[in-house]
Amino acid sequence: MRANFIFSEVWIGLRRNLTMTIAVVITVAVSMALLGVGLMINSQVGLMKGYWDDKVEISVFLCKKGTAMPACNGKAISPAQTKALQEHINNTPGVKGVVFEDEAAAYENFKQSFSSNKALVDATKVEDLPQSFRISLENPDNYQPVIDAMKGQPGVAQVMDQKQLIAPFFNLLNTLAFAALSVAVVLVLAAALLIGNTVRLSAFNRRRETGIMRLVGASNLYIQLPFVMEGVIAGLVGGVFAAVILILAKVFLFDEVVNFFGTGLGWNDLAQTITLTMVIGVVICILASFVTLRRYLRV
């Protein structure tokens, strides 16, 4: 009987404040979705950094005849210089391994990398691509000393660290994650205020009923429970909508990362994110309801 009464009171409160309840659901959904997206981006950046740390290399491009690079003076690297450079690379501290890539191998890698741009591949010839040494590092974060050791060597046209190429992308992802989390915090605060206003309005509309319940000896918790459950239900519904948004974000956004960068979030990671965001949403709703009731409900 008591349970029936509580649920009937919850239904009455939700029906009386329908528009505000919808506003709470939407705000919770958007805030939890943004919070989840921010957490997913952070996880994605961590996975990608771990994946690429072992694969990032330093490319030492060698001079070709007619190369416009100032270090080459239009001359190609000689076999003796190539051999000396390889010995220099092998003796450089921090170098884990080195692989020589001739023009044919460079062209095959070029075709694989730009397979979607057939016009560019057709316009490029084998002799257009330079020879290079691909250097893997013992510590990918300590790349600068190796780069400095390669610069200025005879026959070296250019030294490029692949990590410098992908660093702007990682910085962009970190910025997006920070922006999503910042907006999520603002929306969470807005959701808490909306929940508080909804509970306050519901308590004001039912002040006569709560006064009668107080007179007949109802406990504070029993009186407050319907109002708290209204907030919890709104939080749960908003969390479900947020979960749908996060699933769509994974399928249509994060799964595409795998095609370009080799690693992406799994369904277990998504399930953990959804669980965390729903728990946070419900806890915020409960806290907002209790704080509002303590201040505005005279029991």
TrEMBL record:
Bilayer topology: Multi-pass membrane protein
Chloroplast among keywords: no
TM regions (residue ranges): 21-41, 176-199, 220-253, 273-293
Domain ABC3 transporter permease C-terminal: residue ranges: 182-298
Annotated ranges, domain FtsX extracellular: 56-159
Pfam family, one: FtsX
Protein name, UniProt field: Cell division protein FtsX
